[in-house]
Amino acid sequence: MRRTKKQIRRRLWVVLVTLALLVLVGVAGAGGSEVDAGGAAGPQQTQAEQSQQAGQPDQAAPSQQGSADASRPQASAAGDGTQTLDTQAANAPPEGTLTVRFLDVGQGDSELVELPDGKLMLIDAGTQDAGPTVVRAVRDLGRTRIDYLVATHPHADHIGGMAEVLHAFDVGEVWAPAVAANTRTFEAFLDAVEDKGLTIRAGSRGKDIVAPGTAGYDVQILGPSDSLSSEDLNDYSLVIRVRFGSTSFLFTGDAPKDEIRADAREHVDVLKVAHHGSDTGTDASLAAQLSPRIAVISYGIDNDYGHPTQHVLDALAASGAQVLGTGANGTVTVTSDGTDVTAAPAREGPVVAKSE
């Protein structure tokens, strides 16, 4: 049966419409599946949005993360593959300053030590006549408390001013060797300690006034031994080392050179020269052993004891020390930042031997 052109066109139209409908159905089905998926999961979210809703940090912002990391200190690898951050922290300079004032108290000893954490230590207080000088020095610092009061030994030129100091200030701890003297000066010292309601801590080798690792510095008693038996009170002098950072100070009272030699076997940066510069406290061997950068002698310019001697001055000079003395230079202030030490005398002038 022959079809007319009209019938052919109609049939072609039906086919085209059918094909079009099939295409539309296919597209609609694909779109429906996408909507269904969206409906099941809800509106689509970025990874960042999903992370934030879960309470997690945004992991989809690498540029911000990199910026945050850049603001943190980074440990750089050393040539051997080790990390250097911890080493740098360990080598960081210590905090604070250590300041020691070797007070000009005439023929006697007195050292005022401002510790890096702000505490105050007084080692000896000169003669009784020097008491007001020591009290004034403490007050000039604006202080009302001495945390550690140390009497190196019972001689009057070291503890004479202690009673006045004890009466003037609040005192934390009192340290002294376990030896007594039958003198009014020593009795006045004991009475002042008792009046304060304090007790004396017996100092001897191996005891710590401030233990290492507790305050960023340490104060250790190196000698003498608690078994010492001697008729000479000078032999009982406490030998005290203060260490701050890589710097060290050695306070020797009137200790004999053999005792110091046994107690302090290493280099010290600052030495309080024993026994006012007497031959009994220092010789060339000890000066070389300690090799101090700064040596301070506490003595009266017109003393009757022949202090300091030329032998001691020569020994200290040979060791390379800068030699200062309260007789020639007045109060000598030595400061440590934990790495270096510097000395500032109240006045300039050479330390000259009193006798040969």
UniProtKB/TrEMBL annotation:
Region (Disordered): 36-93
Domain Metallo-beta-lactamase per the UniProt entry, residue ranges: 107-301
Bias (Low complexity): 36-70
Signal peptide: 1-30
Record keywords, A-Z: Signal
Biased composition (Polar residues): 81-90
Pfam families associated with the record: Lactamase_B
Protein name: ComEC/Rec2 family competence protein
